Amino acid sequence: MSLGFKVNLVELPATDLATRLRAGDYTAAVVDISTGLEPDLYPLLASSQVRASGMNLSGYQDPALDKLIEAARAPGSAEARSAAWTALLAAINQRMPILPLAWVDEVFIERGVSGPTPRLIVEPGDRFGDVLAWRLAADR
């Protein structure tokens, strides 16, 4: 499918990418970001994370968005957290400091083993979190 964009893809080592992002030496950057099971956009978008040691490599700063990020990561009832995330995602959608392109779904099926506990995983290796409880199925 063609969208009419002219693209010059430049693959870079992580250190070079970070240097170019901090310097603003790019038009668009595609990066793989894992936010975990409990997503936290603070490292990625908070103004305080623009410093040399922070993870906000793009240098994006927005005090109003900072308040929404803080509210979304604060403890609270399910309703309060859902409302905070709704407000944060609406602000991100309006400002577009980041544009999620794709999400990867990893599906794992076990056969002949008892003990694995169904759970959400972030990284493929997380599927082994309870490996010490695994046993070969009795019918083998």
Can you lay out the helices and strands and say which pair or pack?
Elements: H1 14-23, H2 42-45, H3 63-73, H4 78-95, E1 113-114, E2 135-136
Antiparallel strand pairs: 1-2
Helix pairs in contact: 3-4
Folded structure, characterized:
With 140 residues, the protein is mainly α. It folds into two domains: 14-95, Roll (Dipeptide-binding Protein, domain 3), CATH 3.10.105; 104-140, no CATH class. It has helices at residues 14-23, 42-45, 63-73, 78-95; strands at 113-114, 135-136. Strands 1-2 form a two-stranded antiparallel ribbon.
- In oligomeric terms, what are we looking at? single chain
CATH topology type of the largest domain: Dipeptide-binding Protein, domain 3
Architecture of the largest domain, CATH level 2?
Roll
Mean pLDDT over the residues:
85
The proportion of residues forming helix, as a percent range, comes to 25-40%
Number of E strands: 2
| Overall SS class | mainly alpha
- Main CATH class of the largest domain: Alpha Beta
Largest sheet: 2 strands, antiparallel
Beta strand %: under 5%
What's the number of helices? 4
The span between the termini is 49 Å
Q: Strand sequence of the main sheet, in spatial order?
A: 1-2
SSE order in H/E notation?
A: HHHHEE
User: Which overall shape is indicated by the principal axes computed on the Cα atoms?
Assistant: extended
